What does this fold into?
Amino acid sequence: MKKIIIAIILLIVAGSLFYYLYWSPVYRLKAMNVIPSNAAFVMASDQPVNSWNDISSSQVWSHLKTNPEFALITDYANYMDSLVQENDWLDYVGNKELLIAALPVQNTYDYAYVMDLSRVSRLKSVQFYLQQILDDSYKVTYRKYKGTDVTQIYDSYYKQTIHICFLENLLVMSMGSNPIEQIINQYVEPQPEDIYLSEVTNEVGYGGMIRVYINYRSFMDYLGQFALENAGMDMLKQSLRYSGFKGNVKNNGISFKGYTNVNDTVNSYLKALYTSGNGSHDFLKIVPTASPYFVSLGFKGFPEFVENLEGALNSNPEQKESYTENKDLTEKFLKIDLNETFVNWVDNEVVMLQTAPSSKIGFQEYAMLIKTKDPEEAGKGLNTIREQIKKRTPIKIRSINYKGYSIRYMAMKGFFKVFLGKLFDKFDKPYYSIVDDWVIFSNHPQTIKNIIDAKEEEHTLYYDDNFRDHYDQLSEKSSVYAYVNMVEIFNDLKPLMEIQEWKSMKKNEEYIKCFSRLSLQLTPEDGNVFKTTFNASFTDPSLLLVDGKTSQPSPQPYQATIQRIPEKELPWERRYTSVLKEIDRIVIPDLSGDEYVEKYDNGKPKYIISIKNGWKHGRFESYFENGEMQFKGRYRDDKKRRHLARV
It folds into this structure.
């Protein structure tokens, strides 16, 4: 009888403990509530141990962890494993929510780890567990910060200190004292809930291998550590509020899908895009494979977008005044109706892209692609504008022909900026051509020529297998689609950066180029948010050559062939094949003159070229660095009229 009573008592105690740990009501402080508002990003997982095992075994992380910045995250995670993985209480912790937050510390960022222990936090004090898992190689000290006990564990082997504290049901850890103090500050004196962040977190929900929340005000500063700051990033910082994603990390790259809310009080163009629907991606059939980047805007129709833009501008008087002033000035000066001559024939796609340079002189080539509803109507509208410009300006209207396509020139300062914003302000004096259903504008005729060649030879993104593999993860329609080919764009960034910034960029080159293709898409969703997709294709760095190309590249139609056989074994014509091809690829950066002279560093001329309308046209001479003439000949409309001959 006594044994039965003891058994009943033990059963009641065990049942009570089980209920206490698993079923009893418990107040839970949400982990996101203690993250300071200045966090650049937060990574979260409901199953951190399993997720980390998947991520850390991927080729992506195997490469990134060799970078000191990312290796720090690995060290932290390994530290966490070493402390808890071999102990019984991991059974309670392993599948609890874990957050990793990047917090600003002076001129850099450090990381804090927050784990929701739920009922496990009721069991015993942290000191009890430390006594169970730490040996003599660790020195443990304690301090208080704003009434909270902070435990400091010094590892004599790694010579690092871990800082740990409990905030109700949350375990907080960092390798530096500042991040944990920032979190305690937020706990003691919580900032008001950010409704825009809550909007994104509610849309994303839970689940997935990993969730990521980005605060664009701080995230752009975080990227600045890697010398990635530019005007475009400043625009994102001002225009976007938060993004939230569910994502996966695999051997072939990183993919995230989620939601983004925008600061529509700052950027009326994004607000107009949100209300104007999506556009298709037919432009991929004419964008050359090696293009460093493009940004496409899509909508149900351009006239509807313009109408929505004018409505959105009503809430921003400064932008409204600038828009109205520029539009009225253009219409009055040229005596045209912009709706009739431009807006009404534009269809549902507008793209701004940078193309691969046609020569090595550093001239950056841009193009704008506008899809037309009717190419004939587009031609009539643009001809009207050209004729009006001709009447009112002394600028000569130029026209040249290439493969049956007319390439024309006209000055139209501020024209595209009126409807499309600062992103398109590079086209004040463009060349343009109508190619199939597209009007192609560019800052140089050579760029249009290259696009026509790529289209006819099917050397465009649409036909590129590597790009198609990347694009398969994306939607075929969007409101905004930004794409970057990191291998192609990397060296183009050098002229845009300060020397020290470029040195920092070069230092991280392999960690930037390994994400060979990046895509970001925004698609309007109900609730004033954009559905957002981000995809980064990973290329094994061992496949990247010194010049940044891959060992298995996409077709590159404009690469000059370099002879590898010793010169003495070749006839003169073959020895200079590569030089002659490079001469053909010279692009004239200044279209206003009749002659272009390129010089060596010693001041002596390298090339003297007669030009007309931006083409090589007339006399051509090239020189060795010592001043001796190398070649001479003649061109007509950028083609050899007479074979170049060595002097």
